[in-house]
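FORM 7B - TANDEM STRUCTURE REPORT

SECTION 1: FIRST PROTEIN
SEQUENCE AND C-ALPHA CELLS:
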Amino acid sequence: MVNPKTLRQAIVTGLTGATSAGASVYDSRMSPWQPSELPALTVYSQSANEQNLSISSAFMRRIETIVVEAIVSGTVDADVASDLDDLEDQVKTFLLTNQTWSADIEKIGSIAVKRGRDIESGKRTMISQIGIQVEYVVAYEPVIGDDLDTVDLTVDEPTDTPQVEAIYTLP
C-alpha cells in the first residue's frame, strides 16, 4: 500500500548510489551535517491534502509533497553552485524517469525547487529543496459494528426446490 513512508523509502533506495551523493541518502534526517558527510540527500514528507472521491466512499485522493533536500559544501562558490546544479539534475532525472519508486502513484503533479546557502562559515554550503507533488488513492476501511450474535437456520424441503429461511437474532 502506498503511503508517505513507502514513498520516502523507495526514493531513498533508488537514489542511494545513483547520484554524486553516493551512499549519503537518508530518510527524514534532521541532524546537523558535517562537511565530511557532504554531498548528501535527505528525503522527507512536507505536506499532504486529501480529497474525498465521492460522498459515500472511503476512498480519498491524497496529494502529497515529498522533498528531496540536496546539500553540498566547498570553498569556492562557483564550484559549490555547479555541484549543487549537477546533484539537483541527477535527483530530478531519477524522480521523473525511474518508475521503481512511483509504480503505485497516479501522477506526478509538479516539481518545485527552492535554493539556499550558508555563507557564515569558512565552508560554503548550499541547499536545494526539490519538492515533488504526487497523487494517489488511499482506501480507508470502514468500521462496521457487528452486533450479530446467533443465526438460526430452518431448512424446509416439502417440494422439489429447497427453501431456506434465516432468522437473525439481534441483542
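SECTION 2: SECOND PROTEIN
SEQUENCE AND C-ALPHA CELLS:
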Amino acid sequence: MSDRPIADYALLSDCRSAALVSTEGSVDWLCFPRFDGPSVFARLLDRDAGHWSIRPAGTVATDRRYHPGTMVLETTFRTPEGTAVLEDAMAIGGEGSAHALGANAPGLLVRRLTCTEGSVGLEMEYAPRPEYGLIVPLLSLENGGVRGRGGADVLMLSGTRTPTIDDATVRSTFRLATGERRAFALQHRSSWESAPGIWSEDESHARIDETIRAWRAWSELHDTYDGPWRDLVLHSGRVLQALTFKPTGAIVAAPTTSLPETPGGNRNWDYRYAWVRDASFTLEALRVAACGDEAHDFFEWMAGATAAAVHLGSELQIMFGVGGEHDLAERELTHLRGWRESVPVRVGNGAWDQRQLDVYGELLGAADRLADVGGGFDEVTTHFLVDVAEAAAERWGETDEGIWEVRGGRRHFLYSKLMCWAALDRAIAMADRLDARGRVEDWMKVRAGIREAILSRGWSETAGAFTQAFDSDDLDASVLMMPIVGFLPGDDPRIRSTIDAIEERLTDERGLVYRYRTEDGLEGDEGTFLLCTFWLAQAQATAGLVDRARATFERAIAYVNDIGLLAEEVDPATGELLGNFPQAFSHIGLINAASAIAEAERTGAAAPIMG
C-alpha cells in the first residue's frame, strides 16, 4: 500500500495530463496521454505500481514552492554537505499565445537539478509500471537514455549517463558541486506512433525555461482579481487551468482516482472526468479569474457533449470523458492495494448513467454566465438550450439520485428542484437571446409551481431550515445554494435560519461542513467537504453576514497545503486532507466565496450568481 499523506503531493500539468510529485522528489502518479489514461507511475495507490524519484542520499531537509505565476515545481534539498534544487515541469509546448497554453504539449515530463551550495550526492530511481502497474516493461540502455516498451506504451528517459538496470528499475547515483546541473526528460508515445527520441540536456533545460515563461504569460493575462486572498484566488485559477484538457476545454474534477473519503474505506471514486453539475459554478470562477477564453472552451465542450441526449429526449448525462466520451463504465483494479489499503481501486465511474435533474440548471446557468462575459450562441446551441429548459419544465417533478450521487434510491431532492427552477429562471432571462419569447409564459407558470413546491415541501419547521429532500427534516449543505442562485434573498428569515442550522448542526468541531449526515446507500463514513464550507461562506456573504463569512472562509483555507492545493475533504478526527487531489470543485468554491466576500465588503451583501 501507499500511506504518504495526500497533502504531501504537488501537481504538475501540461493541460492534457497530470503528475503528482512528493516532497521527497518522487513522481508517484502520472497518466499518459490524457488525465484519464492508464498510469505509468501509480505508487500513490500501491508501492509496487511505479515511480520516478530523484533525491539526495542520506539526511535531507526539504521545502518547496511553485515558481511564481506557474505550475512548475521547485523543491529545495538541504543536506549537511550542500543544497540542491529540483525543478519539475510537464512541458507546455511552444511559446505562442498565452490563450493556447498546452495546445502543443509534447507529452514530456522534465526534471532539472542544480547544486546551489557545496556539493550534494544524489540518487535517481526510475521504475515505470504502465497500465496501473500491470506491466513490467522491457528496459534497454541507449546512448544517453533508457527506452521502455510494454503493452501500448513506449517510454524514453533521457539524461542518464551511467545507470544500472535491475529488476526493471533504473538506478543512478551522481554528485553535483556548486553551479553544476543535470536535466532528465521522460517522453511517452503509444506503440503505434513514431518512437520518441533522446533529448539532449540543453533541450531539456530549454523546455523547462519555456514552460516557466508560458505559465507566467498566462498568469499575467489573467491577473485581474484585486480582492481579499488575492494570491490564493489567482493560484486557484492556475489550478483550474492545470486541470483543463486543452484539446476540448473540459475540466476534470481531479487528476486522480480512488483517493478515499475515509482511510481504509471503500468510498473511492475515479474523478478524472468532467461533471455537468460543476458547470455554472465553474463558469463563475472562470469569470472571477478573468478566464474568458477558457470559459468559452469549457461551455462549448459541455454543450457539444450533452446536446445529443437532450435533443433525442433521453436522460441528460451528468458526466463525460474529457474528449466527450459517454460510456464511463466502472471497473475495479484488484491488483492494487490502494492508498492506506483503501480498496477497491476503481477506474471509470458508475454514476455516469444516474439521473440528476440539477444539470439543467447548471447548463443554463453556465450559458447565462457566458452571455454575461460576452458570449453568443450559434443556432444549434440556441436550440439545445431551449431543449434543456423544456426538459427542466417537463421533468422537475421526478425523483433522482441528486447532486451527491447517492446509491440508495431516488428521492425528491430539494437541490434538484432548485436547479430546475434556476434553469427556467435563466431561460426566461435569456429568452430574447434564445429566440424563445413565445415560451416564456409557460416557463413562468412552471417556475412558479416549482417555487411553491420548494417553499411548501422543502421547508421544515422541525429543522428550522430548508432540508435535503421534500417532506424531510434532514439537513444538506446543497440548500446553501438557495440564496447563491437567487431563489430567495440572503436576508430572508428562512435563509438566515437555514444558514444558522447548517453552521450549528452540520459542522465538525473545526467548523467545517459535512455534505449531509443521512444514510446514502453506501458503506463507510466520509470527511467534511471543503466545497460545502466555501458554500457556507458564500451564503453568509450573500446574506450580509460578512464577519461570519470571513471566519468560515479562513477555517477552510487553513487546510490548503504548503503549495496552495486543496483536496475534496478533511478528516474530522485528524484534520488530514482526504479524497482525490487536487480537487477542482474545492478551488472553484474558494474563488467564488472569496469573490462573494469581496463584493459583500463593498456593497453590504454579495449578489447571487444567477437571478
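SECTION 3: OBSERVATIONS ON SECOND PROTEIN
The chain is about 30% helix and 20% strand.
The first strand starts at residue 9 and ends at 13.

SECTION 4: SIGNATURE
Preparer initials: ____
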